[in-house]
Amino acid sequence: MSVAMEPSPLVPCLWFDRNAEEAVAFYLSVFPDSRIVETTRYPCSDHPAHEGREGEVLVIRFELRGSPLLALNGGPFFQFNEAVSLTVECETQEEIDRYWTALAEDGAPEAQQCGWLKDRFGLSWQIVPKGISTLFRHDNPNANERVMRAMLEMKKLDLAALQAAAAVSPDRPAVIRSVRTIPRSPEEIFAAFADRESLARWWGPSGFSSEFETFDFRPGGDWIFDMIGPDGTRYPNESRFLAIEPPRRLVIEHLREVHYFLLTITLTPREGGTSIEWEMDFRDPEEVTKVLPYVPRCNEELFDRLEAELARRATT
User: Fold this and answer.
1) What are the CA-CA distances from residue 24 to residues 12, 18, 36, 108, 126 (Å)?
2) How many angstroms separate the CA atoms of 26 and 43, rounded?
């Protein structure tokens, strides 16, 4: 009986002249949870390219954030170019800023474009927000064009600016629109809205929790709750359900005098799941200008929490 073997990972090999040790030490200083696994040195060899290198470092096997890599001291014969790059997916703008600053130091400024950079050794990197592809999945091609246009103006990527470009159209300046395709049915997603306990678990941006006072899930019903920030600050919310059309549509009126808006949630079956369209009509473009630096990001974080809740519900 044969036993299926776990395939070994693909391991990129990085070619250096004689400075692999310096490069690996630099990369380990940049990336947490990284380590050298093994170092191999040049043996005695009569190959012309190995002349005078006996005992020097030949190969360093190392890991960056758990990903295996090789650094080879192969000589001056080959150089890095932009045809190959390493991608760093970042959770936050702060993480983007940190990796960009560290890797770009003493690199080539002219190579910095659209999230790409070259480090001091000539190796190309892409420093990108995790899930950036979701910004290009809108059924409105104009949104994709806006995101691309914004990106082409950037060196280091500005996640909030990209999300804002995806969310607001010039012909509807009072509306913020966020869209994501989730690999669940409309019925499953709608149920996560309709169930009070489920909704309380995922509603709001990352780090927030909710305490519901009133949850009358019917047309005309009130929804009153406090959203609690990571620092314990309570944000009173008062809304009303205007329309409930399972499993395809919800309309919720946010009634607080600060940031009044009408939220329309539309669920549309798509290949691979359901497109959830999140449209917030603030009625006043100036109000959108105030909240645009953070609302699109918060909507994306809310989608992340919704997906996690749907995965939890599927296993219980």
Assistant:
1) 14, 12, 8, 19, 18
2) 26
Taking only the tens place, the pLDDT of each residue in 299-311 is 999 999 999 999 9
Are 174 and 151 found together in one domain?
Answer: no
Q: Is residue 262 part of a domain?
A: yes
Structural domains in the chain (count): 3
Dist CA 29 CA 62 (whole Å): 13
Structure tokens at 290: 């105030």
How far, in Å, CA of 111 to CA of 284, rounded?
41
* Pair 248, 297 in one domain: yes
pTM: 0.80
pLDDT digits (tens, 9 = 90+) for 117-165: 999 999 999 999 988 888 886 667 788 899 999 999 999 999 999 999 9
Alpha carbons 9 and 266: distance in angstroms, whole number: 41
CATH code (residue 50): 3.10.180.10
| Shared domain check, 215 and 296 | yes
* Contacts for 170 with CB less than 8 Å, ≥ 6 apart: none
pLDDT score recorded for residue 44: 86
Instruction: Residue 301: name the closest of 225, 224, 202 by CA.
Output: 202
Q: How far is residue 66 from each of residues 62, 91, 262, 304, measured CA to CA in Å?
A: 9, 16, 44, 23
**C-alpha–C-alpha distance, residues 67 and 226, integer Å:** 42
pLDDT at 300: 92
Q: Is residue 4 part of a domain?
A: no
pLDDT at res. 7? 79
Closest CA to 306 of 233, 211, 221, 201: 201
